[in-house]
């Protein structure tokens, strides 16, 4: 059961980088091996007590200036470039600048600043006073973890001062060998075995720079310990529960932030490249390193060490992660409250997929509150993935590995705290960063105070989590029915209905009444989840389903659920009524889902339009293949419920017809910071429709989704956060209007559905297509014209980039997708083959060293023969940062060099990314051509010189390389694409290669039937780049993408020329879906 909260009042602050510039999210370079990849220990019988204050940590030297806070002005198109650098999306404050652009506060390394400035984006450093790089004054609130007077020393002393209720233990070691301290607070602490009472874990400071969070946990610890014996509530909670406090889950990183220039460091202190110094490319994000869903995709965490959300080289690779995993498994807490900053949120639930509520969310909502009544004033309670997707995170690990309910409060920003008191010296203007919470006792105390009630309510709820004691007066309901209005069950078929119910209830029953008749009952069984989701968050609640047997067409059926609750008696859910719709013939296994939006405005239909005009063509094509079909009209009935409607069918054919985007007059134009955009917004119906179809697929359904704009998310897809707007944040029934932040002012229909379920990482409109041509089973042999219809010519056919070309199946088998058809016609362009149908495809990936290599035998050639290698290149690289090169060396020798283009397209200017040595450290082969010096690199290296292509070629360019210097020898030549660690263009494409001499062409290869003499080689020795070139058809030329359960088609069936063509094409779709 999915209760689609994303169409309710939940707010959203999520940005998912997409599109071409987001190809930097593809498989990146994993630069370090973990110290240990052993499974985390289950935890000892008890942990060793620590009675001596931790010594001062021995920190490594810094290798750069450290991350700093900057103000960046960017238009909507530039926002994606900023986040493609690896900036944490939700920890970015956005306001509107006077010129209408977004003004963002971002935390950047020196290299990231240089990249943005090179791209023409205005970047301004905060003042030195704002960016306070030195440690705070000793008289302030904040202090280090290690050493005399540090937080660790206080924890040890606290246990000595309160030996009857407090004990400080070490739960593991950090990368640098520091103890990770935990304080256990309970009555008779030294004789009470761990886990013998309901436990709550309060944890903080996984991210080093979030200084307010250790203060939150430290003060909460004192609330319980200092109040024991004097405060009745605190005394009772300590007596009844086992309260654990991990003040810092990242002691190394936290101490590092007290070093000059390192205040805004986020990760731990893993030296990823082993060079003995800490730079921007070091450290692992400890909130992306857990085992559960580790590396699920490259959006919820990053494989790139330079990224702020770098997940590490393996799950649980970090000792800090293993310590928490072992500890959590040992104490088996009822709740975890994992404090972070700075976004003013209370997060819970599923983080790995957007819009995915889970049963236990009922407890979380009761405790966290909602937008109107949050448990912490001015915080927004949200599903984790309503903010941004995550994987390998703490919440997921706690919820699923240990059945521990986990909250992540994001505490207040500096700007918010600066507004607490009107007369203090703190202002928004002198906040250097959202993380720079004022070093002021009063303001820190105020922030703690407004969080205390929520924190205490969690402890109050530990004894009986499914009946939580809420600080905002909410109750966790016993039963929540999954409502729908329409059933597409056949006459005398069964209709399944569902409820979220507490596991503690007994005698759970389905109750129903048909056409006002007597009440009937039936049993229910627990639903165990689907193919990808549904098992999460079900420790205290679960989804239960029951069947209403042999419903009749036209029946009106009232449904409710009951159960017995200890101490209360019978409890009942809310009631709903559905109608069994007519028109479903016996043994109908296929549904035509008509989404023509004939009541909408994009386009506008004739006023007398009362139904879909193309549905019958789908029904007829299915009938011609012996398949019965029913039609569901979205305009008339709304979104089809996954149980009420979709579950009755083996397959669904969802089509758009003339519909470009499902929208209405109020959403036809979207105001984004004063600029008006079309195609930027749809109605909330689209979100409901998308999530119900996803639920259907999750339970084994088969889907074909057809239409020219299937998978089209409008011109603001990236700026909006990876999707298309559908309503105002907090009020989805109201049209979106962006006043400040394009990524948080409005809600979006996420492009995750087409990327991760339908297999299309990106889409572009294809011009000039005149037909569809099969390229793989089951569409081989298909070659049909696509004339379009009178009202809908084929002028923006969908051309798709398969997700598997970015997230390769060997690493991401769940997202396996394949191109099975292309377009015919004049579809030429910069990213389609220069000749024929096949070419070498080098789509950008970060930290790439893609190589296309061959041997050329020139032993019978003289210099006078003027041997050349020629080819056609089309490239779009990040200018001055990413490059295409042609390498050459004599076989058996190390005389490597790069060759200049005789046609003048190459440059000898060294890469900007060479400065500082990072590029050469990542790609050691480049030492042959480049020398790292200060302040600029030299364009000569140990054996050769630098010649390269960079920027945008403007389409296909003929290139030629002089080989006369190698006359009489055998040489090896590599065409290579070399990139740095952050962002990029589209990449490098190669076609029409030849070796020529004055006498003519010696050999030629255009890749139509294979690679010929070329090899798709791996990276050079010492380079760990993972993704190479591929031989493919046009990168964006795919007209049909297939996954195991779906087909995504970039045109409508109705746009084929004849009924016979539709029959044949439908036959091929059925072969794929019903195989």
UniProtKB/TrEMBL annotation:
Q: Which UniProt keywords apply?
A: Carboxypeptidase, Hydrolase, Metal-binding, Metalloprotease, Protease, Signal, Zinc
Identify which top EC class this enzyme belongs to: hydrolase
Which EC number applies? Answer: 3.4.17.18
User: Where are the catalytic residues?
Assistant: 410 (proton donor/acceptor)
Question: Where in this protein does the record put region Disordered?
Answer: 38-67, 297-320
GO terms (BP aspect): proteolysis
**Pfam families xrefs:** InhA-like_MAM, Peptidase_M14
Q: From which residue to which does the signal peptide run?
A: 1-38
Annotated GO MF terms: metallocarboxypeptidase activity; zinc ion binding
Name the domain of life this protein comes from. Bacteria
Catalytic reaction list = Releases a C-terminal residue, which may be hydrophobic or positively charged
Q: Where is the Peptidase M14 domain?
A: 143-462
Cofactor dependence is on:
Zn(2+)
Q: Which SUPFAM superfamilies match?
A: Zn-dependent exopeptidases
**Mind telling me which GO cellular component terms the entry cites?**
extracellular space
The UniProt family comment states: Belongs to the peptidase M14 family.
Its annotated function is as follows:
Carboxypeptidase that possesses the specificities of both mammalian Cpase A and B. Thus shows broad substrate specificity, being able to cleave Cbz-Gly-Leu, Cbz-Gly-Val, Cbz-Gly-Phe, Cbz-Gly-Lys and Bz-Gly-Arg in vitro.
Q: What protein am I looking at? A: Zinc carboxypeptidase
């Amino acid at each position: 059961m999915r209760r689609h909260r994303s169409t309710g009042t939940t707010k959203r602050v999520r940005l998912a980088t997409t599109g071409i510039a987001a190809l930097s999210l593809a498989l990146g370079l994993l630069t370090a091996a973990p110290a240990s990849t052993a499974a985390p220990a289950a935890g000892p019988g008890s942990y060793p007590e620590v009675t001596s204050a931790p010594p001062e940590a021995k920190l490594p030297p810094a290798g750069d200036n450290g991350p700093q806070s900057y103000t960046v002005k960017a238009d909507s198109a530039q926002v994606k470039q900023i986040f493609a650098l690896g900036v944490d999306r939700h920890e970015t404050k956005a306001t509107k600048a006077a010129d209408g652009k977004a003004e963002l506060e971002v935390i950047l390394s020196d290299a990231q600043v240089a990249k943005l400035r090179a791209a023409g984006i205005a970047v301004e450093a905060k003042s030195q006073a704002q960016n306070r790089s030195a440690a705070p004054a000793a008289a302030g609130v904040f202090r280090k973890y290690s050493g005399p007077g540090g937080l660790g020393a206080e924890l040890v002393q606290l246990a000595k001062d309160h030996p009857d209720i407090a004990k400080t233990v070490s739960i593991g070691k950090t990368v640098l060998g520091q103890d990770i301290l935990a304080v256990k607070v309970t009555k008779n602490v030294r004789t009470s075995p761990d886990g013998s009472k309901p436990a709550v874990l309060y944890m903080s400071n996984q991210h080093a720079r979030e200084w307010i969070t250790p203060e939150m946990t430290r003060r909460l610890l004192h609330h319980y310990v200092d109040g024991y014996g004097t405060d009745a509530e605190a005394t009772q909670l300590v007596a009844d529960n086992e309260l654990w406090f991990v003040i810092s889950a990242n002691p190394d990183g936290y101490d590092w932030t007290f070093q000059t220039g390192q205040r805004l460091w986020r990760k731990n202190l893993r030296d990823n490249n082993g060079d003995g110094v800490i730079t921007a490319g070091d450290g692992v994000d400890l909130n992306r390193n857990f085992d559960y869903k580790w590396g699920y995709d490259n959006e919820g965490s990053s494989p790139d060490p330079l990224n702020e959300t770098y997940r590490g080289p393996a799950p649980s690779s970090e000792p800090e992660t293993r310590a928490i995993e072992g500890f959590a498994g040992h104490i088996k807490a009822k709740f975890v409250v994992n404090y972070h900053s700075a976004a003013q949120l209370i997060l819970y639930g599923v983080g790995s997929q957007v819009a995915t509520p889970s049963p236990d969310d009922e407890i979380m909502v009761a405790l966290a509150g909602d937008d109107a009544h949050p448990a912490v004033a001015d915080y927004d309670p949200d599903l984790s993935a309503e903010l941004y997707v995550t994987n390998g995170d703490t919440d997921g690990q706690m919820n699923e590995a240990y059945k521990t309910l986990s909250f992540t409060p994001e505490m207040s920003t500096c700007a918010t705290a600066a507004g607490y008191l009107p007369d203090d010296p703190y202002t928004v203007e002198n906040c250097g960063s959202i993380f720079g919470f004022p070093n002021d006792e009063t303001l820190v105390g105020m922030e703690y105070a407004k969080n205390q009630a929520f924190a205490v309510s969690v402890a109050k709820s530990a004894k009986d989590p499914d009946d939580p004691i809420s600080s905002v007066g909410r109750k966790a309901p016993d039963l929540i029915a999954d409502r729908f209005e329409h059933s597409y069950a056949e006459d005398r078929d069964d209709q399944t209905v569902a409820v979220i119910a507490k596991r503690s209830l007994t005698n759970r029953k389905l109750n129903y009444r048909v056409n006002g008749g007597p009440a009937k009952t039936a049993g229910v069984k627990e639903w165990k989840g689907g193919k990808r989701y549904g098992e999460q968050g079900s420790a205290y609640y679960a989804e239960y389903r029951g069947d209403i047997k042999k419903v009749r067409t036209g029946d009106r059926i009232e449904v409710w659920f009951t159960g017995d609750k200890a101490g209360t008696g019978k409890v009942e859910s809310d009631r709903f009524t559905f109608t069994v719709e007519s028109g479903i013939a016996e043994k109908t296994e296929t549904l035509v889902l008509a989404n023509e939006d004939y009541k909408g405005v994009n386009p506008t239909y004739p006023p007398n339009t009362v139904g879909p005009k193309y549905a019958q063509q789908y029904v007829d094509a299915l009938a011609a293949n012996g398949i019965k079909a029913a039609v569901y009209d979205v305009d008339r009935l709304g979104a089809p419920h996954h149980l009420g409607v979709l579950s009755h069918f083996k397959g669904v054919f969802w089509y758009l017809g003339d519909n470009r985007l499902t929208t209405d007059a109020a959403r036809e134009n979207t105001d984004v910071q004063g600029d008006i955009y079309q195609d930027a917004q749809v109605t909330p119906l689209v979100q409901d429709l998308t999530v119900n179809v996803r639920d259907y697929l999750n339970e084994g359904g088969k889907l074909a989704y057809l239409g020219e704009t299937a998978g089209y998310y409008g011109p603001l897809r990236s700026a909006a956060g990876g999707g298309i707007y559908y309503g105002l944040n907090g009020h989805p029934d109201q049209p979106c209007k962006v006043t400040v932040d394009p990524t948080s002012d409005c809600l979006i229909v996420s492009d995750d559905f087409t990327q991760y379920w339908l297999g299309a990482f990106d889409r572009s409109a294809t011009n000039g297509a005149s037909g569809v041509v099969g390229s793989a089973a089951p569409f081989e042999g298909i070659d049909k014209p696509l004339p379009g219809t009178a009202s809908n010519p084929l002028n923006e056919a969908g051309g798709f980039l398969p997700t598997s070309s970015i997230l390769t199946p060997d690493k991401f088998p769940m997202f396996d997708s394949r191109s099975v058809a292309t377009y015919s016609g004049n579809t030429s362009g910069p990213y389609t083959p220069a000749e024929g149908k096949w070419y070498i495809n080098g789509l950008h990936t970060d930290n790439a060293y893609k190589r296309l290599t061959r041997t050329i035998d020139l032993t019978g050639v003289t210099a006078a023969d003027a041997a050349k290698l020629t080819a056609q290149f089309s490239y779009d690289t990040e200018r001055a940062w990413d490059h295409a090169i042609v390498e050459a060396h004599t076989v058996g020798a190390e005389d490597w060099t790069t060759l200049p283009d005789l046609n003048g397209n190459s440059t000898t200017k060294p890469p900007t990314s060479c400065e500082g040595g990072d590029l050469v450290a990542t790609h050691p082969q480049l030492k042959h051509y480049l020398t790292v010096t200060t302040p600029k690199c030299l364009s000569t290296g140990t054996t050769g010189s630098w010649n390269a292509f960079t920027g945008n070629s403007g389409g296909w360019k003929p290139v030629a390389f002089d080989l006369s210097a190698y006359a009489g020898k055998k040489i090896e030549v590599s065409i290579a694409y070399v990139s740095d660690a952050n962002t990029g263009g589209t990449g490098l494409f190669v076609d029409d290669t030849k070796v020529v001499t004055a006498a003519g062409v010696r050999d030629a290869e255009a890749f139509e039937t294979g690679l010929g003499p070329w090899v798709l080689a791996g990276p050079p020795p010492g380079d760990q780049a993972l993704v190479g070139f591929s031989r493919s058809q046009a990168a964006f030329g795919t007209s049909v993408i297939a996954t195991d359960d779906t087909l995504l088609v970039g045109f409508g069936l109705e746009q084929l020329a004849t009924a016979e063509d539709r029959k044949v094409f439908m036959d091929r779709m059925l072969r794929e879906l019903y195989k």
